[in-house]
Amino acid sequence: MHPAQRRFGSSLGIDRTTMVAMLDALEGKGLVSRHPHAQDRRRNVVELTDAGHETLRLATEANDEAEREFLASLTPKAAEQLRSSLQKLVLPSDD
């Protein structure tokens, strides 16, 4: 598995086997394509297909709408404070 895939899997808490299975499933649904890396044939390049880009666009729109509804009762400042606090919980710190 490509080191970037490994890092991506690690950041999501997904082991190598699960990551490969997820990519297999996404490829089977036509959402990603894999092909050998031009300089290192041991590695694969994973790219979104047109269907993958469309699915990502729709998912992003749905996520944005759900977030707007969830945060609707908060002031913009309170919503930003909540986002910031949640990011601190899930993203690695720079410390």
From TrEMBL:
Entry-linked PROSITE patterns: HTH_MARR_2
Pfam family, one: MarR
Xref: InterPro entries: HTH_MarR-typ, MarR/SlyA-like, WH-like_DNA-bd_sf, WH_DNA-bd_sf
An MF annotation (GO) of this entry: DNA binding
Signal peptide residue numbers: none
Every HTH marR-type domain range: 1-91
Keywords in alphabetical order: DNA-binding
Gene Ontology annotations of biological process type: response to stress
Name by which UniProt lists this protein: DNA-binding MarR family transcriptional regulator
Organism for this UniProt entry: Actinomadura livida
Organismal lineage: Bacteria, Bacillati, Actinomycetota, Actinomycetes, Streptosporangiales
